[in-house]
Amino acid sequence: MRNLLLSSILLFLLAGCTLGHYGRLKEEATTSSIPKPIFGDNFNSFLFKTNISIYNKDVSGLLVTKQMSAQDYRIIFTTELGMKLFDFEFKDTSFTLHYCVPQFNRPALLKTIQHDIAILLMNNLVGKPANDFTDRNNLFAIKRIQFDNMYNYYFTEKVTNHIVKIEHSKKKVKKVVLSLNDYKDEFPTNVVIKHCDIKLKIELNLLKR
Questions:
Q1: Helices (H) and strands (E) in the chain, counts
Q2: Which CATH class is domain 21-208?
């Protein structure tokens, strides 16, 4: 009986992270355009104080995001002393790995971090239809975009018109949640990327733009 109770509690805790609430969303009749990218259309660079936690091992440093041209972003992660840890480039729908230290040079880890940053950049949405939803309490305007058998849900707070959350899901199961917090000048100064099925968390705090 005790084991059954513990199993039920564990299942409930896991479900709280992974099971989506998409069945409770109300779909709107119209299909709209893709959401506006968080980083905007101006050619800017952003500097973030960054911590990557992988199975309780932390790596801290600075993440530089620079828009080279339209749909072309360069992402460089360094230690605070300037040692480069990885260097990515996202251009349209293509990805280039310019450099990576051995501790990050693991195919599964690299692909996961690459995918997380791609979701944040919102660089691969052009030409994809967006389905509109609202939540039960009518607090968020929600856009859903499909990628093969995966979905991204973009939650825009109706009061502020800010994207405050992006959920990456497979069917009705949440895989990754991006929380965008503390907006200043229409840009989030804190971003938390958390995985539901592996122990990976990335936190970005804006230092300079």
A1: 2, 13
A2: mainly beta
